[in-house]
Amino acid sequence: MNSKLRKNSHSQKINEVLIYIQNNLGGQLSLQSLAKLACLSSFHFHRIFTACVGESLHFHIHRLRMEHAAFKLRHGKDSITDIALSIGYETSAAFSKGFKQNFGLPPSQYRNQQFDNAISQFRTPGEISLLDSVNSSIHAEIRDLSEQTLLFIRKTGYFQQVAQEAWNALMPYAYKYSLVAEQTKFIGIVRDDPELTPIEKIHYDACISICKPHKIAGEMGLQRLAGGKYACFLHEGPYHMAHEIYHKIYGVWLPSSGHYLRDRPSFSLYLTPHYNQDSDQCRTEIYIPIS
To answer: What's the pTM?
Structure first.
């Protein structure tokens, strides 16, 4: 096997492992079990994983678990014990110790601090709440979606740059193998929270829905987009301005909605061609998984 084919084979296996880790943060993610999933020896898997991902397996899993916990503390209502169990800790004491080492605060204090920040963000200096005006500018449709199979390519780094790189790589491949049809959906998944994850570690998945079997090649991968209930919001304008509506969704809409977040990633459904991402005419649907 030449070096290019070997690299592509490794990329596909690591993609499968990364998706598995993301979907099973509360499971037993041992080196041996993940190496078996990748069909590699533990020794070679660890070296290949570190080379492909840029961090060791242990550090990667720990970082994702801590960032996931921080996100749930900021935006969810689960107890600290439930959050600890959901990311693989057996006790809340062990989780609290690890969380404080990572973020400098125990979970309870971190949650209270984030709540105070959210309240102050939507108040004027005169302490007049902007909640009503913000709520009036954001509207959600609750939709039930079916599970979908997605072809994707992942790029890591600064969103503005890697998103375009990902689409530039995905679309020629999709057209080459006749995977684009009238019903094809163009989806972007940012796997990390930019306020928690270092910019150079942020994962962006450029995805298209596919309806027929396809044997992947190169850097491409397959993943399943979970079905279920989602809150859908319409963003009109350049893609890079979508962070404003995310702040409103998580800071204002969600706390007053009566809904809870599910442990699935949010995603963007691009209604305007992805290559026109800086246009003021862009229309994007943002889907937030809820229960």
So the answer is: 0.81
| DSSP 8-state symbol, 129 | B
**Nearest of 263, 228, 261 to residue 147 by alpha carbon:** 228
List the beta bridge partners of residue 204.
Answer: 155, 190
Q: What would the mean pLDDT of 199-225 be, rounded to a whole number?
A: 91
- Closest C-alpha to 143, from 2, 47, 286: 286
**Comparing C-alpha atoms, which of 54, 56, 45, 59 is closest to residue 14?**
45
Sign of the C-alpha dihedral, residues 8, 10, 12, 15?
A: negative
Residues in Cβ contact with 206 at an 8 Å cutoff, skipping those fewer than 6 apart: 152, 153, 155, 163, 166, 167, 169, 170, 188, 274
**Per-residue DSSP letters for 21-74?**
HHH-TTS---HHHHHHHTTS-HHHHHHHHHHHHSS-HHHHHHHHHHHHHHHHHH
- Are the C-beta atoms of 152 and 221 separated by less than 8 Å? yes
Highest mean pLDDT among 125-134, 251-260, 274-283: 251-260
* Residue % of the chain over a pLDDT of 70: 87
For the chain, the farthest-separated pair of C-alpha atoms sits apart, in whole angstroms, at 68
Range in 47-51, 88-92, 261-265, 267-271 with the lowest mean pLDDT: 261-265
* Number of Cβ within a 10 Å radius of residue 34: 23
Residue among 97, 109, 138, 122 nearest 257 (CA):
138
The full DSSP string for 199-255 is GGG-EEEEEEE--S-----TT-EEEEEP-EEEEEEEEES-GGGTHHHHHHIIIIIHH
Dihedral of alpha carbons 192, 198, 201, 205, sign: positive
* Burial of residue 93 (number of CB atoms within 10 Å: 0-12, 13-18, 19+): exposed
**d(C-alpha 161, C-alpha 274), whole Å:** 13
